[in-house]
Amino acid sequence: MMNIPASLLQNKNILLGLTGSIAVYKSIELARLFVKSGANVKVVISESAKKFVTPLTYETITSNKVLDDTNESWTNEHNHIKITQWADIMVVAPATANTIAKLSNGISDTILLQCALAFSDKKILAPSANTNMLHNPISQENIRKLSLAKYTLVDTQTKELACKVVGDGAMAEYMDIFYTTARELLKDTFWTDREVTVTGGGTIEKIDDVRFISNFSSGKMASSMATALYLSGATVNLVATKSEPELPKGINKLDVGDSKQMLESVETSLSSAKSTQKKPYLFMAAAVSDYIPSVVQDGKLKKDSLGDEWQFSLKKNIDILKSIDKKDICVVGFKAEMDKSQALTNAKAMLKNKNLDAVCLNLLKDSSSFGSDTNAVEFITDSGVISLPESDKVTLALEIIKHAKALQE
Q1: For the whole model, what pTM was predicted?
Q2: Which of the listed residues 137, 166, 186 is the one where a domain comes to its end?
Q3: Half-sphere exposure of 361 toward its Cβ, with a 13 Å CA cutoff?
Q4: Direct distance between the N- and C-terminal alpha carbons of the chain, in angstroms, rounded to an integer
Q5: For position 120, which CATH number holds?
Q6: What is the pLDDT of residue 166?
């Protein structure tokens, strides 16, 4: 799982609503992750949910008293009005079919439903129900009504349900709910609905059907860039040979192998993006092989026929970043260097020679620098150099896109 920065949701106030489904156990991890990412979390729980979990569990995780039907107070802020005035967002996870039906009809006969009715801002809903209950036409109409009333629904998943039936209706995984919530809280109007392409990983250039030339690039920085952009509201295409597991599901992931496949995918992505209203971006974080085998052999080359020494011919590879049509797109390149004395000079030359808007310079110590969870870069433009200090890669990515945004403002 990608490392979530401890400050990602700093100073954000989240009201987590729990209703009576066995899936409520997943919300323990959801609450923990909200807190771990810096958010302030308060919980409102239904009486039926208390049959599955205890308020004490959530009070321990959040360090806040849980609101339920037995303890509302009007002598302090522990009530359905004050708590909703406090919250930046409300997340109901799980949301049972009964809860969804009541919400869609404005019924507020529990403290949780009163909170939902009183909260006028964005709400996240993660349904959990038996397949037949969820797909009942009445339930589907209730869901449709809620989607028009500032509710964002996190899709259910198909798996074995508590009733031992395999079908649609299981609540989404807590990471999917977390990413959906974080995106709603962190959306930036500049990035929202803007098409962005990110490339990552080292290209894999075949020698024969079992051997290849590649490099140590892990794809972690590209995954972090894609995640940061997604959380900021962008429409993200990640073209990569490697990427982190459990990326936000809203990221369109295009798996590629060699540089030819990467070029084709990038060109396709950019071609469709140019027809959109907002100027698209390309963040070229992939490590593309400079040289590739002149001839790719069929099958497997045998060492008996190769002899004690093996020499094969390489040819210069296409320069993806230099060759693509950059008209009407903003392009940020990434450059890894080991020679500290020449790194900045080489990065500035790349900026000019490849006609880029910016270059992110990463100074490596050695091969062990690849795959690390932290990084530091120099953000280089025609206007100057901005040093972005070492931090976890998602935090760094958020800093990079902040400066990339300034290129068009």
Answers
A1: 0.93
A2: 186
A3: 24
A4: 34
A5: 3.40.50.1950
A6: 81
- d(C-alpha 197, C-alpha 199), whole Å: 7
User: Residue 288: what pLDDT?
Assistant: 95
163 as an active site residue: the answer is yes
CA dist., res. 229 & res. 249, Å (int) = 13
For residues 41 and 17, give the distance between their C-alpha atoms in angstroms, rounded to a whole number.
11
pLDDT along the chain (409 residues), means of 10: 89 97 96 98 97 97 98 96 98 97 96 97 94 93 92 89 80 96 97 96 94 92 97 97 93 96 95 86 96 92 86 92 92 93 95 96 75 90 95 96 92
Does 400 lie in the same domain as 264? yes
Task: Supply the DSSP string of 50-73, one letter for each residue.
Answer: GGTS-HHHHHHHHSSPPB-TT---
């979390």: which residue's tokens? 41
Q: What is the CATH number of the domain that holds 256?
A: 3.40.50.10300
Q: Which of 115, 163, 330, 360 is catalytic?
A: 163
Beta-bridge partners for 388? 377
Q: Tokens at residue 299, please?
A: 């099958």
- Residue 160 exposed, middle or buried by CB count within 10 Å (0-12, 13-18, 19+): exposed
Same domain, 345 and 279: yes
Same domain, 217 and 324: yes
* Structural domains in the chain (count): 2
| Rg, C-alpha atoms of the chain | 25
How far apart CA 353 and CA 336 sit, in angstroms, is 16
DSSP assignments along 185-250, one per residue = HH--TTTTT-EEEEEESB--EESSSS-EE-----SHHHHHHHHHHHHTT-EEEEEESS--SS--TT
Residue 340 lies in a domain: yes
Listed residue (72, 75, 136) closest to 110, CA to CA: 72
Tokens of 145: 């009504």
CA torsion, ordered 264, 265, 267, 271, to nearest 10 deg: 130
Query: Do 133 and 248 belong together in one domain?
Result: no
Structure tokens at 179: 């990413």
